[in-house]
Amino acid sequence: MPPSTRTSRPRTAVVATVALTLSLSALASGAYATGLQPPPFPPPGGIEVNEDGQPQGEGNVPVPEKPEVPELIEPELPDTPELPTLPEYPGHKEAESMFSGITDIVHGALDLGFGFFKPPSARNAPPPPPQQPLPATHWGTISDDDTSAQANAWTLRARGGNAHRDARLTEAHLPALPDAPAAVSGAAKPLELGKKYSFGSLHRLSTRTWMKDGSVHAESKLGRAELGVPYLKAPGGPVDTKRLPVLLDLRDAVTTAVAHADRAAEFRTEIKGGRAMSFGRELIAFDGPLKPNTSLRIPADKKLPPWGLVTFNEQITTDAQGHPTAGKDGRYAPEPGAGSGFANTAHITLLFPVALDMTVGHAAVLHRGTADAGKAGADGGDAQ
Prior knowledge:
About 15% of the residues lie in helices and about 35% in strands. It is built from 4 helices and 18 strands.
């Protein structure tokens, strides 16, 4: 027998032994050519099988299916009354000439010169009485029925202008009226006030009215209000703030009013901040609430006739019919014990460039209660 044949036989035996050992090991561990399989002998109790024939015993945890995500449906926004579009005014063109700055300087110098050469009696004379503006923006719509308590709220009301119209935005009323439900939520996107010419925009606005424990509540909310007179934006773009008679900016304002049957009405305005400007000059800038009825006369110089008034945190007491309370002279006088009234985040009254009355963040309440409900809260302190 050749040497090569004697050597190959032991090698063949070794290879066969190793192959047999690996096959037995694989058989004991349950490994097959088709992949990993469950042990050949079931554990005590057997193997549970689901509807698809898959084992559900120990070591086989089913993978949860992903939940179906429902289709996102955008909520429908309620309809809001459209405010009037402000027309273009001849004195407020967007295109400025190269001499516009020089013209302003000349006008300022002439005004200063004429004022200096006035007689002393004219310079020191008391200011003329203010012209009678548009009728004041009062309580709102009052239902002519036997309801003892009512509430009204809106985010913006504009009266006057060239069109002499009265437009109320997101108005709510209790009891509900055809054009004023108990609560209104405004558009999620900023709402432009006007089409071709926009005099401002409102952000995150809502109003609501409700009854609780015998008291009637009104609330008006504004995320932000940007208002300019006569308009902030024109077809050509934004207006230069130096040419705006009034610019108002408010942030995160909430105005509430509460009327009770047995004590005086309560008013409150919470606001994070804002500012008011006139022809580029800052009249006021604040971060936080202001005192009730903080008013700004335009112009501030009392030697000049007034043509505008801006009031923040306005609070007005009224009788049970929504008419402002009056003193002996017939003019408005606050009544500490009044059970009715209204509050405004801001109130703008202008005679220039157009006669305009605008209220922002309005909340009004009244409670007729008993016959002496108006005097019941006289000892309960002033309205806040």
